[in-house]
């Protein structure tokens, strides 16, 4: 095969759930390449879609959370967000998660885009939602295993922290990328520092 050959989709021939948890399922799937007779086993994590929230204050600050993350075994500075419930609209899930985690609410949410967190092994999508004009208005409603600090951080500082390796959450970095066009437009109108 040459590098210039367009790849062809593989066909799924079989799958079975290996593990069911409250957060995700692990599935064994057999796929066959269209040019080959044999099928091979691959593993897929089936998780619900997620909402990643970009809560923007009128002053151009992001409402951010710092919390312990078990996978990295450390504290992570990141955007609020969480699981989208079955049948829930991503924008409404973002509004709900933002209020529950931070106590902030704002103007009408806008879906900026969606990404595949890790398409090699995950089937879900993360929806990036901007909630502008946020203000502290609600009581916190953390889950039993949630504990976090909340900070208002200017977007420029968030970008500096990301470039310095202090912000490593990939979905947050995706969110900042999708925020850029909106930020440039609003920044001109409001006199905010550019990205």
Automatic annotation (TrEMBL):
<dbReference type="InterPro" id="IPR000086">
    <property type="entry name" value="NUDIX_hydrolase_dom"/>
</dbReference>
<dbReference type="Pfam" id="PF00293">
    <property type="entry name" value="NUDIX"/>
</dbReference>
<dbReference type="InterPro" id="IPR020084">
    <property type="entry name" value="NUDIX_hydrolase_CS"/>
</dbReference>
<feature type="domain" description="Nudix hydrolase">
    <location>
        <begin position="46"/>
        <end position="185"/>
    </location>
</feature>
<protein>
    <recommendedName>
        <fullName>GDP-mannose pyrophosphatase</fullName>
    </recommendedName>
</protein>
<dbReference type="InterPro" id="IPR015797">
    <property type="entry name" value="NUDIX_hydrolase-like_dom_sf"/>
</dbReference>
<dbReference type="GO" id="GO:0016787">
    <property type="term" value="F:hydrolase activity"/>
</dbReference>
<keyword id="KW-0378">Hydrolase</keyword>
<dbReference type="InterPro" id="IPR020476">
    <property type="entry name" value="Nudix_hydrolase"/>
</dbReference>
<comment type="similarity">
    <text>Belongs to the Nudix hydrolase family. NudK subfamily.</text>
</comment>
